[in-house]
């Protein structure tokens, strides 16, 4: 029986890890608005889309709770003003992690911590504090056994470069070289990505007389030639390769550092006279950006190096400072309606879920049906490893009693009786209940003991049902 339980556990872990290889797109979820939908509604919407990673700018507990058991990975952030405190010692970093992140895992899949945002190009901030804060947080993750799951990095603006063209000659700004060297060494040692916020929109806006709009909009432009023979048909690839060259020029050229575009987008509205910021251009850019993220293609300097992309952003945020464009990068308005049509459907979505993304957040109320379903059809609900047996027994009694689940398969004569463990039996019953009620994420909560997985937990002759 012990060997059967081990086999089941290994199979479950294998399938769970396999489920994380879904090709999707990341998105930035900012909250500087007074008219935004609740995090729970946001989580419900995104479960029915190709979005599989969400990056936030703090550790908002309401957001972290809302994304529990959704199958969507979350990247959290240490705000710029808090970096100095975390840099002081590991106890400060441990306190931050213990209070801000640990209470929500593993139900919420936190996979990254951003230390600051464009910290090195923000005035009056200590560069050394950034590096030390990253090291302290990583050390705390190691002490808690979380370093393989949660990676630590920091997003940079393109202003960290001395120049970005031609891409092959790009280097980091001279005054940042010592700090960048330390950061790159840290990224190599920990396997974390180099994160850059890259915006062709701003480059075009500042040089509209000399830059082709289609080149900025990721179109198949005539091509810009680099002296080393590379040809760029869009500006984003050139910006990524400029970062790549700067990394190589500091001696980190063996390909061990992955590059992630942590922000990129185009505004649908700008200040008076800004002809580039309009819904049509925003739709064109973000549609092409999403297609690029899903294509798994690299850049002219490294054709096979898949670049992870986080679209900026989910919402127009009416409380952001700056000019009008800063408040109008969202795909959605604050009321949940789309600013313009962008296809966020995916091959993993059910027909109901894919159709729902074309509408607004109004269809995703907590009492709704298919709109809150996790992308499937191949999706299941199981008990979390190490859940308390007493709680699982109560869940099992509910599912097989008032919950209306047919539990004959986990009776002694059933195909799912072995292993005769409450965890295995509860997983079967929880999944049956979850499937019966439309695969809504709240139907796989079970007092925090349920876990949504894209891997089929069936084993041997025991088959877990699907809707």
TrEMBL record:
Belongs to the glycosyl hydrolase 17 family. Gene3D superfamilies: 1.20.58.1040, Glycosidases. Coiled coil: none annotated. Its main location: secreted. This is glucan endo-1,3-beta-D-glucosidase. It is an enzyme of class 3 (hydrolase). SUPFAM superfamilies: (Trans)glycosidases. It catalyses: Hydrolysis of (1->3)-beta-D-glucosidic linkages in (1->3)-beta-D-glucans. GO terms for cellular component: extracellular region. GO terms for biological process: carbohydrate metabolic process. It holds the Pfam family X8. InterPro entries: GH (IPR017853), Glyco_hydro_17 (IPR000490), Glyco_hydro_17_plant (IPR044965), X8 (IPR012946). GO terms for molecular function: glucan endo-1,3-beta-D-glucosidase activity. Keywords: Disulfide bond, Glycosidase, Hydrolase, Secreted, Signal. PANTHER family: GLUCAN ENDO-1,3-BETA-GLUCOSIDASE BG1-RELATED-RELATED. It is found in: Secreted. Its EC number is 3.2.1.39.
